[in-house]
Structures are given as C-alpha cells and as structure tokens.
Amino acid sequence: MIKPEDKKIIVDAIREIPDFPKPGIVFKDISTILNDAQAFGLLMDHIHDRYKDMKLDFIAGIDARGFIFGAALARDLGIGFVPIRKKGKLPYTTISEKYALEYGVDEVEIHIDAFRDVKEARVLLIDDLIATGGTAYAAANLIEKSGGKCIEACFIMDLAFLGGSEKLSKFTPVYSVLGEA
Ligand code: AMP
C-alpha cells in the first residue's frame, strides 16, 4: 500500500480535464505528474519497491502513456521493456488482438519475438489507467500469445465504476497505485 502522504502528492499532481476528448469524459492528465519531479519520483519509487522482488523478466507497456512509466520502471529494475502498440505501428512481424470499443473495434500488437528467447518470461503489464479494461485485457492476452506469463497488471488509476479491473482480475492480478478513482 502507498503511504497516504505520498498518495496525496501524486493525486494532487493529476490534472482533470472535463469533456475531453468528448463530452461526458473526465480526462485524467498524467503529464502533470511527469513534470512534477517529486510526484513522479514518489510514484516510481513506490512501483519499484512493489516489483523489485517479483523476479520479473520484462515490463510490457501499453501505447502510449504505459511506455513512459513502463520504460522508467524497466530501467529501475534492470530488465527489458516491450511496447504494446496500436495497430500498424510496429515494424517487424507482429501478433495482434482485437477488442471492442463503445462503437467499433480497435487492435493492439506486439512483436512476435518481444520476449527474446526467455521461456515463459515473467511479464508485468503497465498503463496509466484502466477504464473498461478492453485495452488491458487484449494486451494481457498478447503477452500470453507471444509466450510470456502476465504476472500482474499495474495501473496508476482505476476507474473501477466501469468494471474493467474486476473483469481483468479474472485473468491476471490487478494492482492500482492510487486505488479506485
Ligand atoms: P479501456 O480500454 O476502456 O480500459 O481504456 C484504457 C485506455 O484509455 C488507457 O490507455 C487510458 O490511458 C485511456 N483512458 C480511458 N479513459 C481515460 C480517462 N478518463 N482519462 C485518461 N485516459 C483514459
């Protein structure tokens, strides 16, 4: 569990933008954590502490904000980072997974050799926020399809009222740094 005083500093650093990108959505802007050295440092120290003894082989981050936290954590832990990207962005051979949006479908991809030659690589999935959970569920599936084991899915925030974390937790353990938003 994060210390309440650290949690307050991180929560206070999140900027909420009403009606972005469309009416009715309150967008949680984490760029204001990134440019606050104290909040970003406390957050990274906390997740480093949580994962340092979990014998992870890779961190897989979701396009695009999961790349920032994921790559920083991978560097802190001394392990590799794997990007899970929106369709059409990865240049080499990929495995892909479709998922449903409110209207239509989207697709994420991973490189076929993302976990190199590590057998049953222990992988942590990371993103800034879980909402309906569609993106994270597809990403966790990609980790398994490409030969890894999704050890846990970590988010900074969880919009738990949308039910995504509950659904995802049937597939892999879910951790949210700030708890339910
Ligand atoms: P979902 O697949 O519905 O769980 O959506 C999760 C993805 O959408 C994550 O990559 C989030 O960064 C982004 N996202 C969804 N809702 C919000 C929100 N209210 N504020 C910021 N990002 C969001």
- Level-2 CATH architecture of the domain at 55-176: 3-Layer(aba) Sandwich
Number of strands: 9
- The span between the termini is 15 Å
Radius of gyration: 16 Å
Shape: globular
Contiguous uncertain segments of 5+ residues? none
SSE series: HEEHHEHEEEEHEHE
Chemical compounds bound to the protein: adenosine monophosphate
The protein's oligomeric status is single chain
Q: Helix segment count? A: 6
* Largest beta sheet: strand ordering: 5-6-4-3-7-8-9
Structural class: alpha/beta
User: What fold name goes in the CATH topology slot of the domain at 55-176?
Assistant: Rossmann fold
- The mean pLDDT is 97
CATH class of the domain at 55-176: Alpha Beta
Work out the helicity level.
Answer: 25-40%
**In what range is the share of β-strand residues?**
25-35%
Structural features, described:
The structure is a single chain. The longest helix has 15 residues, at 37-51. The chain has helices at 4-12, 31-34, 37-51, 65-77, 134-145, 164-168; strands spanning 15-18, 26-29, 58-62, 80-86, 94-100, 105-111, 122-130, 149-158, 174-176. It has a domain at 55-176: 3-Layer(aba) Sandwich (Rossmann fold), CATH 3.40.50.2020. It has 6 helices and 9 strands. It starts with a helix and ends in a 5-residue tail after the last strand. Helix 6 links the parallel strand 8 (149-158) and strand 9. It is of the alpha/beta class. It is 32% helix and 31% strand. The chain has a 7-stranded mixed sheet with strand order 5-6-4-3-7-8-9, with helices on both faces. Bound molecules: adenosine monophosphate. Adenosine monophosphate is lined by residues 25-28, 62, 65, 127-136, 164.
